[in-house]
């Protein structure tokens, strides 16, 4: 299969592997571990000080940790709520230095889990950059240690993604920052504005809002959360507004810079009225999206360009059409930039190498989605709008958590009384299969697992109605909504139990 | 079917129903609602001021609410833990009066949900006591309003249960109390001792321990939690001990009384050594179990005794063999005294009346179980010990939550580092079906719902491995443990990922 002539001469090769994984985020980690566990000689190269990629080091994990901290801080400030529950509590004070130190310890701990697991499975880990010198050869450069070439039968490219720049807004990581920087700030800017109302923008908005910033989201579209079910998206916006976040919709940022007073002037264009205005803030975060990160890998050396990683990929085997032994996974590929997708692709890539049709391939189509605000927003499967467009006959059951017994025993759920936490189950009228589940509640990410089981395994509503759920639990509302969906008529009747 | 001669004369009858439900806890409520929704003329009688039964008024709900409050109070006292997360917090003070007021509001709110739902479904609700005057006739006595007789084609008996008395220990609801009283106390006794290490005893032990009592559990058996998987029971005991609860095992209470100093003297017998000693405390709670509550119903009037409700019941239709139109459900029947069971039986009872084989019948055999301490203890399906006794070949996968990403982003999970939170999945080696799931973690009651879906729907391990779980979520550990179970050899090898 391989052509020796393409390669460096044997004397240049420092090591030979079955599989070399470039990048050690969740996707790369999964690929390396699974390859090694299957007996393949495996190495992994990553240029960061800590393993785990954007996900672990400056993305999802810091974001979720700070969200948890910030909602705890927010809760403690709601003296009335706390005192009602029998705790008399003096006012708390925030110490962002301590919060950041704790966060760093947390990341280190998780990164160490990656390291230990790789080591346990005999994966060689190189800290350094990687670039192609031939289709089967990669030069690894380690800072201060020089460089060398390794050869591999298969190369998994899991190099991740980078922030997309916003025209007219130069990120200086001082006052105009990326999400990476925002998540490592050890002070709270009085006015924090965010370009982009996607998941990353919204979660970081919640963090700073809870910690006391006045937060503004600037979004060029007419609504946030475009991929959500309309009812859920509407509830999400109302929720975040009720917590103090301001939304400027249909608004484009034309430029941003520091004025004489040292504050930021951000020129905004309203897309509808065509008016411009100057918005003032102390920090501006750009989060209009991320793009595949292939720089530095020198793919042109082997005759590839970025398009080959988008258009020319065999999704069955996660292989480049031009070089089937090169397997891109995760954020460098098309589709949502989620750790879950990266892990699934990693499994598929390794299984294609092993030529196995193993059990772990998750190709159930729907990724469950969570926005980790409080209460959380979670959804999996089809939205009502998708079902209506597709002319799919469906039935709906919706339950408010305010009637759930467990919900009423939990302090942390109380604030959301303003925005009724709910769960909505969409059922196919033809076969009673569960097509979609949409919810707003504090524990959505765990309840969504049940919903994801139902949707991805093709369970039907009758199955769910048979399951004994723990009592009291929030999950009972999933069952109850499913029962209501069964009892309800055909779409678009919405059966609200209130 | 009915014999008019057995009944009162028509002139005595104040109202006639298809279904009369006696008792409005979760079972009675479910029966009444479902009967009415099916178009049956339905009435419900309950003697308490608030609907909801022991479950809502002085059992599970107050217990879970106070547990949540008490763990919040406990968390705030762990200054180091809180400050690590960036919150400088002066020491909190407990106000049990406020806590109890909040609890009462909570119960009222939930009770009102019951009331509204019954009213919405046109169920007539009588506040009063009920006693049989004939097989189809019940006399309802309303305080201050006199009594009258109603007739019904079917009578659902959902009268619940009462505390079992402990010989030698007279409950005075002052210093020697039942769980009902303990859950409504508006002060914290310095030394709080509990006879009985079952779920009720352990949960109330946690509440008072968190609020600052020195808590002792006196248990006549050699271990607590006899029905748990051994590994889980062991972890539970270690957990509660690490939080400060003292266990006196193999110990029987012979007598208890107030001494001259006004404190309680409790005489204990060690079953192994046969030694006796006197144990001092400020409050003693008796929770050695509950018994079916049939007093006042005057069942002897129609030729029944308590045995008829235990031994002579058709479980398919929830009917008394002697009078198939009388249907006992919930705590008055054999088996675990859980709201879940009562609700399932209620559904079965109403379905037998309607002669339908409806979708909602949950007869999946295994009830999920949760001990709502923190972290929670949850289990469903078979224990390892049961599988070994039955010579069932099984495989085990166990994962520590300390390696779970979501776990590491949550403040509330941190205290449990002492006792490693884990999840253990038991899989049938012959067909890979999930036989049992046992776990210790803060969100066990919601994770258990997934496990209960798997066990009760007969899903196999391969199914679970296919499901995309939200990322990051605690539920991912369920999938991971299942993957390890698949990868592991046949029992009794235990594959611990650490």
Automatic annotation (TrEMBL), chains A, B:
FAD/NAD(P)-binding domain spans which residues?
17-346
Q: Which UniProt keywords apply?
A: FAD, Flavoprotein, NAD, Nucleotide-binding
Cofactor note, please? Binds 1 FAD per subunit.
Binding residues annotated for NAD(+), in chain numbering: 196-203, 219, 289
Gene Ontology molecular function terms on file: dihydrolipoyl dehydrogenase (NADH) activity; flavin adenine dinucleotide binding
- The positions flagged as active site in the entry are 471 (proton acceptor)
Query: Could you say which cofactors this protein requires?
Result: FAD
- Family matches, as Pfam families: Pyr_redox_2, Pyr_redox_dim
Provide the Pyridine nucleotide-disulphide oxidoreductase dimerisation domain boundaries.
Answer: 368-481
SUPFAM superfamilies in UniProt: FAD/NAD(P)-binding domain (SSF51905), FAD/NAD-linked reductases, dimerisation (C-terminal) domain (SSF55424)
Taxonomically, the superkingdom here is Eukaryota
Annotated Gene Ontology cellular components are: mitochondrion; oxoglutarate dehydrogenase complex
Q: Which family does it belong to?
A: Belongs to the class-I pyridine nucleotide-disulfide oxidoreductase family.
Name this polypeptide is given: Increased recombination centers protein 15
